[in-house]
Predict the structure.
Amino acid sequence: MNSNLKTPEEVRVEYKKDKRKPMSVRAHTKVRGITALFAGLFFFYMVFSGDVLGMDNKEDDPVDIAVMLVLMIGMLVSGFIWLMNLAAYKMEPDDEMSARTRDKANGVAFFVWYMVVIPLLMLMELVKNGSVSQLLRGSFYLIFISGLLIYDAFRHFIFLMLDKPDRADEEE
Amino acid sequence: MPELKTRLKELRASKNMKQGDLADIVGVRRETIIRLEKGQYNPSLKLAMDIAKVFGVTVEDVFSFED
């Protein structure tokens, strides 16, 4: 058994001892979700855009370059903010309710993601026979990475939706 | 389905304690205490016992189920 694994109680004790400013579960979930979304869309767009890196020696499409730039800058900026937050703040750990909500969000995200992807692939195959295998042969790793990242973003956003506080939830 | 009833808010008020204070003591988020007070979340046995211990009462004094 890995001795580095800590119980939720130990994690909470360490969190309390930490002198840095706290960052709530919702806040750091939001930053992680946004970073994953930008990164996922960046890799996804790389599959379907023209070859912006210029390896095919064809002229680049300005729209492709603009979209790629926006996604890349978004990914870098949100990733940078995430890393800076990691250094400057102490991240509030999940408690039992948020851990349960997170499990639920992971399941819902998995279901939603597959409900989107599978019909899409079936539709592609219907439109053009063999198009899915052709796509996977050419860009399997990019599709795989973007799929994982978009799923990651989904599960964070679904967590935020399920964990949404009521308007009346003010400190009493 | 039985509905979760709780005297948490009342007990907390009697000790002049804020939601955040109770959350800190039992090691959960304030949002969890809010949901518990509204009866929207069924706590684990450990959390229920920890909360009861804070107020020096039994779990049944804090939480109950009504049909």
